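Lab notebook: predicted structure, single chain.

Context: the supervisor wants predicted structures on file for every construct in the current expression panel, including those that have not yet been purified. This is the next one on the list. No modifications to the sequence; it matches the entry in the shared construct table.
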Amino acid sequence: MRLLKIIIEHHDDGYVGYPLGFKGVIVGEGDTFDEALQDVKSAIKFHIETFGDESFDEPAAIEAFVVEAETAA
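Prediction complete. Output recorded below exactly as produced.
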């Protein structure tokens, strides 16, 4: 069992979730936070069952940060 970091974003049309530390793209979605979380967890399970330990991007991130920053463009 691994402890994973999952980002859940809230958009106008629902929620999108994706995990950190994986090779490839894994995305889940839903109308609510919980639906998106369950969907991305299901996608993660499928990804691991399909690709095994090769799914993980090692070494895994220790921490993840969300910041706001201004840019010139």
